[in-house]
Amino acid sequence: MDGLNDFCFSDGNPSSWQTLERFFNEINEAYARQAQGHGIVTHWEKLQDFVSTMPLMRLAEATLDRALGPQMPQYTASAQAPPDKPEPPEIIDGVIQRYLNNMRQVKAVAVAFGIVPVFVWQPIPTYKYDLANHVFNPSRLGCHANSKSGYPLMAEIAKAIPLGDNFVWAADLQENAKEPLYVDAFHYTAPMSRRIASFIVRAIHDRRLVGG
């Protein structure tokens, strides 16, 4: 299931990559301090972790975040487009080209191991869905604003370039829907999840992707 987050993480880095980077850097810094101290190191950061996780400190930090942080999106049933500005066209095109390259790599690995991959381009609220029915339509989309320009472009590419039977375009499923399909800004209701699952199963069966 692809599409929404591909455009959100437009730089190609995976979600929460900063956490892994910080963990790796902290280990290297710890080794460096240990080498400089000839194996004798006082772990002051443990005391810092203790203080920072105290309830009073967490309350103070949460208060500051709420006062100084960006305003949280508000949910509205309005069909007006959110004011977020997407990335430039070359960034959006780069996301799609990265996705197509990833597809080629996954297919190559799958063939080597006898696996049948299925790539599904998922429905999202900002593409062919009447936002008047979106109960949890956010006032701002943040990085997901990229999908508004990225999805139509991907639709054109999917029509122009044969992507194979392994590629399932499910983004149009909600085009004529007149009911709420999301339990929050982007996650599906149970009926919508079943609709998507049934669509994928039919595609796999009709295209004979799985034998038996």
Describe the structure.
This protein is mainly alpha-helical. Helix 5 (89-112) packs across helix 6. The relative contact order is 0.15. The protein has two domains: 4-10 and 76-206, no CATH class; 17-68, no CATH class. It has helices spanning 4-8, 17-36, 44-52, 55-68, 89-112, 146-160, 190-206, and strands at residues 75-76, 119-121, 137-138, 167-169. The strands form two sheets. It has a two-stranded antiparallel ribbon. A two-stranded parallel sheet has the order 2-4. It is built from seven helices and four strands. The radius of gyration is 23 Å and the shape is extended.
Which runs of at least 5 residues are low in confidence (pLDDT < 50)?
Answer: none
What is the domain total for the residues? 2
Strand-and-helix sequence, N→C?
Answer: HHHHEHEEHEH
Q: Give Rg in angstroms.
A: 23 Å
Helix fraction?
40-55%
- Terminal Cα separation, in Å? 24 Å
Summing up helix and strand content along with how strands pair, one would put the structural category as mainly alpha
Question: Mind describing the biggest β-sheet?
Answer: 2 strands, antiparallel
Strand content: under 5%
How many individual β-strands? 4
Overall mean pLDDT score?
87
Count helical runs. 7
Which strand order does the major sheet show? Answer: 1-3
Shape: extended
Can you give keywords for this protein?
two-stranded antiparallel sheet; single chain; 212 residues; mainly alpha; 5% strand; 4 strands; two-stranded parallel ribbon
